[in-house]
Amino acid sequence: MLLANRRLRPVIPIVVAVVALAVGWGLSVRLSGYYVFLGISAITAIIAVIGLGVVTGSAGIIALSQLTFAAIGAWVVAWMSVNEIPGGFPVWLLAGGVAGGLAGILIGLPALRLRGVNLAVVTLGFAAAFDVMLVQIQFPGSVDGIAVERPESFSSDREYFFFAVIVLVICALLISWLQRSRIGSSWKAVAFSERGTAAVGQSVSAAKLSAFAVSAALGGISGGLLAGQVQLPFASSFTPLQSLALYILAVMSGAYLIDMAVFGGILWVLVPELLKKWGVPQDWGFVIFGLLGIQALTSGSNLGEGIRSLFRRRSKRRAEASAAVGALGASDVGTSVLDVFAVPEAAEPVPADAPPVLEVSGLGVQFGALKALDDVSLRVRPRSIMGLIGPNGAGKSTFVDAVSGFLPQHTGTVILDGQDITRQAPAARARHGLRRTFQQDRVPPQLTVEAYVRFVTRKRIDIDELTDALTFLGCPPPDERLSNVDVGTRRLIEVAAAVLSGPKVLILDEPAAGLSHEEHLLFGQRLTRIPSRFDTAIVIIEHDLDLVRTVCTEITVLDFGRVLAQGPQQEVLENPAVIAAYMGDAEISS
Ligand SMILES: Nc1ncnc2c1ncn2[C@@H]1O[C@H](COP(=O)(O)OP(=O)(O)OP(=O)(O)O)[C@@H](O)[C@H]1O
């Protein structure tokens, strides 16, 4: 059943596309002329809203200049038409999209440093400035009344409507494919946590800029299509106020879901039409969109997610009911979850004199007057598990941040597998094989378990291998949505994904937080098998000493940012200085 679903999944967008084309053709033949015109307007709006869905919905960036990119696309199409550039309308439209995309990258550059309101001001300022310029320079041909030439075989309104449907279907297919690709995952990851994104080797700048570029390119295509529709485009179709209203519509509908972008685009045309019919000034449409936007922003959700979670809850209830019936008749197979792991053990044991895979020397981090880390050095042997322990505030998380590149101002050196990575950014360190997990939840809830694991591993990975690793670590199946999973389990999935990426060193910052004591111990048993299976060394920060005893061969104790003790597990835990300064006799004796 699951396999059948997996095989069917890539086919679904194609089937939807074919149906959309058939419906589009039917409407182009049957609708009256007026509705055909409105239909083209709706399609141009839908394409612009799909673009907004990428940048705001998926990547979580505020962008208030979508219709400026549309104006750029329309301008390029008009200019190419007036100058009779070879290739015809489809080529001009593509050029409009490319021009919009390039402008998007230009505007996206400040987005790398700005967030929230500041970014909103920049994008709205750009929209206002371009609007003023557009009024001055006008669209090519508009003063002389030279109409934009439509594609030869789609010159009538009805034919052009069908052409617009084809363009929409291509755009929607492309975005649906991108959303499911690594790029799409990077958009969702960056929206949730930039640190989490960088820690898996993904450039945060590339994720943000690609979202801006794709979104603006769709804006450009939407504008180019509008130029072909009206044939004499005017600046009044692309004002900053309209960009703002379109943004609100995208947020309210949940435009990263393509069906909701379609709904949003239809609403964009329908609301003013209804107001006109009822004799209400059409500008009231902006008020309605504004109210809907306030509702969406204050509720923290959107229409698309609301509808989907309703369906998900229903199907979950149904699945639970049928699982309960199935469980009554099932016999206990008795297979230990530890036996499920199909990945073979690494062949060779590590020689005692093997060089360390991670060597940290003289690490120092200063926060103002506070020395959070002072001359910390440690060596991690290949395929070993080192525990990094110490009381609250000892500097453990600071150590992880510094070693993984998130505190570049540190002193000292970090050598990974013989290579000096001290000056490398976090994403580069991750790509070189230094992976880490976080104390806080950094797993983007918009993804499925499988999409997240594939995003983190950065390589092709067999579904059986993926499923085995998830089962082994007690994670939910690949199809499960991360938004349905509790935080403790999400952190196990974070560990499973990091392990599957095959790092040289994996640093786990309190990976079992949120699990019960028994689950802690089971997690420990599983963890001890990871280094040999995956040829990985692990550094684990943990407060649960039972877990530390279960998994760690060596221990480093930090206290007030300095190394208090270091060495084999038993030796360190019996060290009087450790007992006196850190844990107290009662707690440490087993
Ligand atoms: N960004 C920061 N600015 C200023 N001080 C900081 C910053 N981050 C950490 N510190 C301080 O540095 C010291 C070490 O903190 P750190 O979080 O590394 O300790 P920890 O051992 O991980 O503690 P815990 O077990 O509670 O997570 C603490 O005194 C903390 O208050």
How do you describe this structure in short?
The chain is of the alpha/beta class and 590 residues long. The chain has helices at 2-8, 11-30, 33-58, 66-82, 88-111, 116-137, 157-180, 182-192, 194-199, 204-230, 240-253, 258-277, 284-299, 303-329, 396-403, 426-431, 449-457, 463-472, 487-500, 517-528, 530-534, 545-551, 569-573, 576-583, 585-588; strands at residues 358-367, 370-380, 385-389, 411-416, 419-420, 434-436, 505-509, 537-541, 554-559, 562-568.
What would your notes on this structure say?
It is found in: Cell membrane. Residues 358-585 form the ABC transporter domain. InterPro entries: AAA+_ATPase, ABC_AA/LPS_Transport, ABC_transp_permease, ABC_transporter-like_ATP-bd, BCA_ABC_TP_C, LivM-like, P-loop_NTPase. 59% of the residues lie in helices and 10% in strands. It is of the alpha/beta class. Strand 1 and strand 2 (370-380) form a beta hairpin. Adenosine-5'-triphosphate (ATP) binds next to strand 2 and helix 15.
Kindly state the percentage of residues in helix. Answer: 55-70%
What's the count of strands? 10
Instruction: Give the cofactors and ligands.
Output: adenosine-5'-triphosphate
N→C terminal distance: 49 Å
Principal-axes shape call:
elongated
Main sheet: strand order: 6-7-8-3-9-10
- Name the assembly state: single chain
Q: From the alpha carbons, calculate the radius of gyration and give it in angstroms.
A: 28 Å
Transmembrane segments: 12-28, 34-54, 61-80, 92-112, 119-140, 160-178, 244-271, 283-304
Keywords: ATP-binding, Cell membrane, Membrane, Nucleotide-binding, Transmembrane, Transmembrane helix, Transport
Subcellular location: Cell membrane
Organism: Leucobacter rhizosphaerae
